[in-house]
Amino acid sequence: MAGAAAVEHRDRFGLGWRPELAAAILAHLDRIDLIEVIADDYFDAPRRDLRALRTLAAQVSMVLHGVSLGLASTVSVAPGRLDRVARLLEATGAESWSEHLAFVRGGGIEIGHLAAPPRSEASIEGACRNLDRAARIVGCAPLVENIATLVAPPASQLDEAEWIERIVCGAGVGLLLDLHNLYANAVNFGDDPHTFLRRLPLERVTAVHLSGGRWIDGPYGARRLLDDHLHDVPPEVFALLRELGRLAPQPLTVIIERDGRFPPIARLLEQLDIARAALAAGREAAA
Amino acid sequence: MSSPALEEFLARLYTDEAALAEFLRMPSKTARTAGLNDVEVSSLVGADHIGLVMAAASFRAKRERRKSRRRLLPWRMR
Q1: CB within 8 Å of chain A, chain B residues 29-68
Q2: Nearest CA in chain A to B65
Q3: A109–B6: do the CB atoms touch at under 8 Å?
Q4: Sign of torsion over alpha carbons A260, A265, A267, A273
Q5: CB–CB of A158/A119 below 8 Å?
Q6: Quick check: A150 and B1 CB within 8 A?
Q7: What integer pLDDT is reported at residue B70 of this predicted model?
Q8: What DSSP string describes A159-218?
Q9: Can you name the residues that pair with A217 across neighbouring β-strands?
Q10: Phi and psi for A90 in degrees, rounded to 5?
Q11: Nearest Cβ partner for B11 among A74, A109, A219
Q12: A41, B77: Cβ pair inside 8 Å?
């Protein structure tokens, strides 16, 4: 894979590449180790845009992040969707790619977002099958990301930590651990976030997402934490990053995702500095 | 437990407000009519219905947000 040999063995910190942040990111590459590009935004891009991405990848390490494959499904991912990932990786020279442990469609109905499938033997088998197919067609397996869910997935037989471990270890892939998703699911369904963290296959974690969210109201007075990527990373998530740094000695790539209500770049850079400090504190505590 | 039929059923609940309302009124009958097996029907009857409503509303909002974002961005960035 292009650029793979150049991956440095140290913790790295970066931002999700968004058009609204592009100029500010380019102006602060001295404080940003890498960017994460949403792959789906470029599947149909003209060659000129792909050349621009390749030029960008020559300036700063780039990873691709997919949102629409629906890997955690009992239905096979269409080869054409994986071909697009392969072509984009080749065209951009990005060093790696990632996708979510989610299903996004069923029976031809597009949900339009990431949905948590039933956590069952069948969805584990389906996800492992899809990951094997993805690795063969794309040429390398994706990192897989845990998702946030407002609903306890119906018809589940396993809890989330076990379900993730079975897929990640069964497919032999790396885990992109989204700490805000972990935190949101834990508080929404009555788990302790740190216990949840410790139950995951942390030796498989190579990348981390950080983001923020807000509490929303539901029927019958219910309140749940929505992962909306529109708010700052909360202190509880930085505390999880510190704990991860203590428990997982391998180099980690940490990316802050922000999809809207964009603050000044100084605010995002400050959040990156807090992430650096949190992970370093965890490393020191383990030493 | 999980099947293409169950995923299709959930996808419909997340995208079709009328289908979700009907399911919440008559969960067992709606799931059975969709061709789900007894185990799937039973687990859907006892599912997190509040969460289903909240997830469906969240997905709807995100679809709308994406649509308006696509209208605002230059076509090359869509």
Answers
A1: 39-40, 43-44, 47-48, 50-55, 57-59, 62-63, 65-66
A2: A260
A3: no
A4: positive
A5: yes
A6: no
A7: 62
A8: -HHHHHHHHHHHHT--EEEEHHHHHHHHHHTT--HHHHHHHS-GGGEEEEEE--EEEEE-
A9: A223
A10: -65, -45
A11: A109
A12: yes
Fold of A10-262+277-286: TIM Barrel (3.20.20)
The beta-carbon neighbor of A75 closest among B4, B9, B54 is B4
Judge if ipTM > 0.85: yes
Side-chain-side CA neighbours of A48 within 13 Å: the count stands at 2
Q: What's the token pair of residue A237?
A: 């998530």
HSE-CB for A60 with a 13 A CA cutoff: 25
Residues A10, A35 contacting (CB under 8 angstroms): no
Per-residue pLDDT reduced to its tens digit, A48-97: 999 999 999 999 999 999 999 999 999 999 999 999 999 999 999 999 99
Answer yes or no: do B48 and A106 touch at CB < 8 A: no
Q: How is chain A split into domains, by residue range?
A: 10-262+277-286
